[in-house]
TrEMBL record:
Gene Ontology terms for molecular function: hydrolase activity, acting on carbon-nitrogen (but not peptide) bonds
Protein name: Amidohydrolase-related domain-containing protein
Length: 290
């Protein structure tokens, strides 16, 4: 589907519009001012237009199909256009099966998704890192009970196997530990990963919040997702600007409406897996920071 979005810039004190040409599921051209083309036009007067959110929903292969579907729908209604998720494994030989199972759980998703691996620190090996490099798996989440687990990994061998793809590796600490202890563990991990040159995220993923831009760059999802410019996927949300609170009216993935407030769920199965050809595409520092 080919169409033009005309986005007024009144909030910037100007009467001009920003025009986006959506073609083949992507924003193919952006222009300040109207585009003179004979295609369908959408005016954003009365709406606020923002990039779609990229939000975590980790280790879904431990959930039921119904739970995954319900959570994906809830996140879509809050403006998510891409899910970050993972397949939980204990050993390398389980990876193929669990990735396939995770893809199957997302088969009815109307939004896109990117899949990594989750495992305990004791299970990470150079062979798993080489597998991630071969299969273009952009991240590994290490499920930790204690920081000491991270100190027993031979990071020199992991670093060597991780070159040049650079799978991003980050820990997930227990939710029930004190904030002070968690901050100390994160600081120790950030120091350790910097010394060992391991690409990482500097803090926990929050499943209730969209990923910040530094995380998107680190994982290699940006600029395909997370922005509204030429070459990015046409993923965006339309918010009502009437009243005191902004309300999501529509969610669009690759140029197609997958949710509107007048129709709670549309386009089941439209979502597709995003393959990350290269994390840290723009040479971000090894620890993503705001």
């Amino acid at each position: 589907m080919r169409y033009i979005i005309e986005r007024p810039l009144e909030s910037l004190g100007t009467n001009t519009v920003l025009s986006y040409l959506v073609d083949s599921q992507k924003i193919s051209y952006v222009s300040q001012g109207p585009l003179r083309m004979n295609v369908m036009r959408m005016s954003m007067h009365g709406f606020k237009m923002i990039p779609g959110h990229i939000t975590p929903l980790m280790s879904i292969n431990k959930m039921t199909v119904e739970d995954v579907r319900r959570q994906a729908v809830e996140k879509t209604q809050r403006g998510t256009t891409t899910l970050i998720t993972s397949a939980r494994i204990d050993y390398l030989h389980e990876a193929e099966h669990e990735l396939k199972r995770t893809r199957h759980l997302l088969i009815s998703s109307s939004i896109d998704y990117c899949i990594g691996l989750s495992l305990s620190p004791e299970k990470i090996t150079p062979n798993i890192i080489r597998y991630c490099k071969q299969k273009k798996i952009p991240f590994i989440e290490l499920i930790c009970d204690d920081f000491s687990q991270l100190t027993r990994v031979v990071w020199e061998r992991i670093r060597e196997a991780n070159f040049p793809y650079g799978t991003v590796i980050f820990p997930k600490f227990p939710l029930d530990i004190e904030d002070k202890k968690k901050k100390i563990w994160h600081k120790k991990w950030n120091d350790l990963s910097a010394n060992m040159q391991i690409p990482t995220l500097y803090k926990d993923l929050n499943e209730d919040e969209p990923l910040p831009l530094p995380f998107l760059k680190m994982l290699g999802i940006y600029p395909q997702k997370g922005g509204l410019f030429s070459g990015s996927d046409a993923d965006y949300c339309l918010l009502s600007t009437e009243g005191f609170e902004e309300k999501i009216m529509s969610v669009i993935v690759r140029g197609t409406i997958v949710y509107s407030d007048k129709n709670s769920e549309k386009k089941q199965g439209y979502g597709k897996e995003i393959i990350i050809t290269q994390p840290r595409r723009f040479g971000e520092s090894l620890s993503s920071r705001v």
